[in-house]
Automatic annotation (TrEMBL):
GO BP, sorted A to Z: DNA repair; DNA-templated DNA replication; error-prone translesion synthesis; SOS response
Gene it is expressed from: dinB
Cellular component terms (Gene Ontology): cytosol
UniProt cofactor note: Binds 2 magnesium ions per subunit.
Family, per entry: Belongs to the DNA polymerase type-Y family.
Protein known as: DNA polymerase IV
Taxonomic placement: Bacteria, Bacillati, Actinomycetota, Actinomycetes, Micrococcales
Catalytic activity: DNA(n) + a 2'-deoxyribonucleoside 5'-triphosphate = DNA(n+1) + diphosphate
């Protein structure tokens, strides 16, 4: 029996060019090329004129003479990627990053608290658009490969769900170029053999595919054409930081409201540290002001820690230091990252003096939330307050 479609492939649309259009409103709706000598990225307006990634700059300008050519801003793209991946990891702890602008997410365990995989995907796309200002296409399927194909077919700015009973109808008519691993050389070889669709490749015997394409490549592509892809979402690569953020809208926020939001973010991140048996040394506060300018403030503690009380105290100090800027410019987003992560095994034992009570409290709160849900217990400062978040808090695990 086939499983359920619970794998999401999320892929930002024309990423570099979209960041340029986001940050410079006068570029929106216009053909944009990133990179002069060689095209690093092209907006969909430029792609419609035949411009493609890795194309020579002269050829691109001949195809689209009215294009706006901008130099790459890798720092801006990296910052945008961090913002989007923070949303991914705020959606599910099971995230496998593929590149700066795409990832797999496993959401099968979220049904009871967040809805169906399609509902999760809809909210994910809304959050990326609202909080990062970018369009993202998402494919939902039973396997990673099908989810990746679905997101590609749904572009731009789309969502496509491939239910298990529709897999063959969806995949088999597609051109062989859609197979994960078919480049120009392999596609040309298959075309010369009269194989132009995925279904035609799947009709071959496995031994024939291996003989025509080589043992490893033939076996891999034939398996995909037969809808076999057993690879799970791989989260084994441990990240050097974790983070979470919330968009706040444009209306003013009081000091008390910001403290409530900050407290909930730090509560969640500290629990993720403990769930993953990890500690951190650096707390980073990320802010986006009312004029959409961004700022970061950070502080490194003397000893690595996973204690909520310590991390919250540092985060509050950072927020206080930004209070005058927030008062003058407003605030539309607040986020926290914990970096310089290490295994909790590396933490030196301490005498039970200053932090013993807070450590015991953290342990008890974690146990209560594990058993009765993340919303079962909250700090007094959070009672009867609505920070105005558009999505519910979801439990996370490293």
């Amino acid at each position: 029996m086939r499983g359920e479609a619970t794998v999401l492939h999320a892929d930002l649309d024309a990423f570099y060019a979209s960041v340029e259009q986001r940050d410079a409103p006068e570029l929106r709706g216009r053909p944009v090329i990133v990179g002069g000598g060689v095209v690093l990225a092209a907006s969909y307006e430029a792609k419609a004129r035949g411009v493609r990634t890795a194309m020579g700059g002269r050829q691109a300008r001949e195809l689209c003479p009215d294009a706006v050519v901008v130099p790459p801003r890798m720092d801006a793209y990296s910052a945008a990627s961090r913002d989007v991946f923070a949303i991914f990891r705020d959606t599910t702890p099971l995230v496998e990053g593929l590149s700066i602008d795409e990832a797999f997410l496993e959401v099968g365990g979220l049904r009871r608290i967040a809805g169906t995989p399609e509902q999760v995907a809809v909210r994910l796309r809304e959050r990326v658009r609202t909080e990062a200002g970018l369009a993202i296409s998402v494919g939902v399927a039973r396997t990673k490969y099908l989810a990746k194909v679905a997101s590609a077919v749904s572009k731009p700015d789309g969502l496509l769900v491939v239910e298990p009973d529709r897999e063959e109808a969806f995949l088999l008519p597609l051109p062989v170029e859609r197979l994960w691993g078919v480049g120009a050389v392999t596609a040309d070889k298959l075309h010369r053999l009269g194989i132009t669709t995925v279904g035609q490749l799947g009709e071959l015997e496995a031994a024939t595919a291996e003989r025509l394409l080589g043992k490893a490549t033939g076996a891999h592509l034939h398996a995909l054409a037969r809808l076999r892809d057993p690879r799970p979402v791989d989260t084994t690569r441990r990240r050097s930081s974790i983070g979470s953020q919330r968009a706040l809208g444009s209306h003013p926020r009081s000091v008390e409201e910001l403290d409530v939001i900050l407290t909930q973010i730090v509560d969640r991140l500290a629990r993720r540290l403990r769930d993953g048996d990890r500690v951190c040394r650096t707390v980073v506060l990320r802010l986006r002001y009312g004029d959409f300018a961004k700022a970061t403030r950070s502080r490194t503690v003397h000893s690595p820690t996973d204690r909520t009380t310590v991390l919250l105290a540092v985060a509050r100090e950072l927020l206080v230091s930004a209070r005058s800027e927030i008062s003058e410019r407003g605030i539309t987003l607040i986020g926290v990252s914990l970096s310089q992560l290490a295994s909790a095994d590396s933490l030196q034992p301490e005498l039970p003096i200053d932090w013993y009570d807070s450590a015991r409290l953290d342990t008890v709160l974690d146990a209560v939330r594990d058993r009765f849900g993340a919303a079962s217990v909250a700090r007094a400062t959070q009672l009867d307050r609505d920070p105005g978040w558009s999505t519910p808090l979801l439990p996370e695990h490293e």
